[in-house]
Amino acid sequence: MDGFSAEEIFTKENGFAYNDFIILPGYIDFAPDEVVLESNLTRNIRIKNPLVSSPMDTVTDSRMAIGLALLGGIGIIHYNNTIEEQAAEVRKVKRFENGFINDPIVLSPGNTIADIDAIKAKYGFSGIPITENGKLNSLLLGIVSNRDIDFETDRSKKLLDVMTTDLVTAKMGISLNEANQILKNSKKGKLPIVDDKGRLVALMSRKDLVKNREYPLASKDPRKQLMVGAAISTRDESKERIAALVEAGVNVVVVDAAQGNSIYEIEMIKYIKKKYPEIEVIGGNVVTMEQSETIIRAGVDALRIGMGPGSICTTQTTMAVGRAQATAVYRTAKMAREYNVPVIADGGISTIGHIAKALALGASSVMMGSMFAGTNEAPGEYFYENGVRLKKYRGMASQEALEAGGAKRYFAEDTKIKVVQGVSGTVLDKGSIFEYVPYLIQGLKHSFQDMGTRDMAVLHERLRKGTLRFELRSPSAQLEGGVHDMYSYKEPKYM
Predict the structure, then answer these.
(1) Gap between the terminal Cα atoms of the chain
(2) Any residues with CB less than 8 A from the CB of 116 and at least 6 apart, and which?
(3) What's the predicted TM-score (pTM) here?
(4) In whole angstroms, what is the distance from residue 414 CA to residue 451 CA?
(5) Residue 473 among the catalytic residues
(6) Which of 313, 323, 331, 462 is catalytic?
(7) Is the pLDDT confidence value at 27 over 90?
(8) For 383-398, how does the pLDDT look when each residue is reduced to its tens digit (9 = 90+)?
(9) Sign of dihedral through CA atoms 247, 101, 148, 126?
(10) Which of 345, 342, 284 lies closest to 310 in space, CA to CA?
């Protein structure tokens, strides 16, 4: 056979990065749109598209998490904030799209229009049911929507005076499909679900029907809410943080440490799995088989792979510790497969080809920072430098991030002298992830087609059997594989 198996290449004395090798083509008998990218994020969570956003304060808050979940991936909310702030970000994601909204925000007739304004500013919606005492499981009296208050100049007016009382409701126990049909036929924005005594028990939204149609691959939990993850540290304060996150509805927690093979992380993993067995736990970061096995035995449901390959990370240079990312992914994924634990390739990805290579080496998903940092949905504002539209992007071990609380990830929160292991910089405007992610996914499907592989399970099976073939690339081969010998050329929008 041409080329070499991954085992033959990645067990040599050298460590390899994604650019150091190429995947040899396979046989094509299917179209790109027949490729299925669904995979396991963790043991028990599957996502339709294998894209995860990094828990960095210039990458993932609720807007990024909502967008990625709608597009079939998942976002991990950063923890460079207070416990209350992080839990609030998780709630925004969980409230964004539901089938039945089982914990709707409710007000009383005595509340004012100003209270509706505050809810809209915080959560982005304003269709609020009004009950007798302003709580769930109380007698439903009406609903206040934008059309009721848009032209009211007196924002102190009581909701009793503006609410709509001519309501279409559905009885508790109705199926999701039946409730959807009532919403369609009624042409109302909201459908309250009431019990036999007229007390509000749940709510449905017309906007959710539209989103269900537009985003059929959305990552949802059994309650039909968007899935979201959140990062925590190995510090004791994270026990209080995880409690707040669980209450907010988080689906998966990332125990975030630059070097995950520590007693602190092991104890935190065991604590979470014992106290909150329903929560999936991602452990890391690790790069060796030994590190991986240690935290797998502690109880993790997935591994996060990478030490120092990120575009803003200087850990390998500063600390002289880490591993070339492609080798790290292959070696850890091979070991983790024995325990049925998926691995997430974190860092070193700057192209669609890098995503494909990470998956081909055994990763079930990829976590990205810089790839998402310049999008509309990333935290921060755009600014111009020399006529170029940019956004700030910083490593969590950069001077700025350490001062803002990022030192928790590096066991350096209480040290007087903080050693910087990353930089702050800028990234180009990439537009909205609602345009960017579909581009990445379509490119990834073409890559799978070129490899002759229809889905992730087959890809990993070929990797295991050695029928997926690789070849190392010389510096000249890497140069040849890119744009060269041109006087000038125009880069595509997403290079």
Answers:
(1) 33
(2) 107, 126, 128, 144, 149, 159
(3) 0.76
(4) 49
(5) no
(6) 313
(7) yes
(8) 788 887 777 886 655 5
(9) positive
(10) 345
